[in-house]
């Protein structure tokens, strides 16, 4: 048992995932099987993740956004996504409850993972989000958010903070603003 093969999903992880995601044991096992097939090493690298993202955005440059999403899913900070991180990510972007989505959005914007969001971080994410939009569609954007800077300013304005201020993870209303502003792009 101590030498359990990597193909078996541990009971502990299974129970944990059932509890946090409300997926059934059958669903989780099925996904685990697929995950093992696509990813025999049991870990998704940033490059593999970028490639997956690239398939969804063939007409734009999703690399930097994919990198940020990867970071926000890599909760143990080891530079790879394991099955647990992958399934929680899947859960959050599909059927997750709002509180979890808020937590995730916060971690997406908190680029340096220090527990605060700064204006520079909001700007960085807005720049990455912009690269997801095909160039020919930029002209269709509303006047007050047709550049990453304008969009970041607008978003930051909702925090009612000074330019040098920062928002902390306890600030639920700020998090909700992030979601309502960015949700359509974030949850693609
Ligand atoms: Ca990880
Ligand atoms: Ca930060």
UniProtKB/TrEMBL annotation:
It holds the Pfam family EF-hand_7. InterPro entries: EF-hand-dom_pair, EF_Hand_1_Ca_BS, EF_hand_dom, Recoverin. Residues 61-96, 97-132 form the EF-hand domain. CDD domains: EFh. Keywords: Calcium, Lipoprotein, Metal-binding, Myristate, Repeat. PROSITE patterns: EF_HAND_1 (PS00018), EF_HAND_2 (PS50222). SUPFAM superfamilies: EF-hand (SSF47473). SMART domains: EFh. One of its GO terms (molecular function) is calcium ion binding. Belongs to the recoverin family. May be involved in the calcium-dependent regulation of rhodopsin phosphorylation. Binds three calcium ions. This is Recoverin 2. The lineage of its organism: Eukaryota, Metazoa, Chordata, Craniata, Vertebrata.
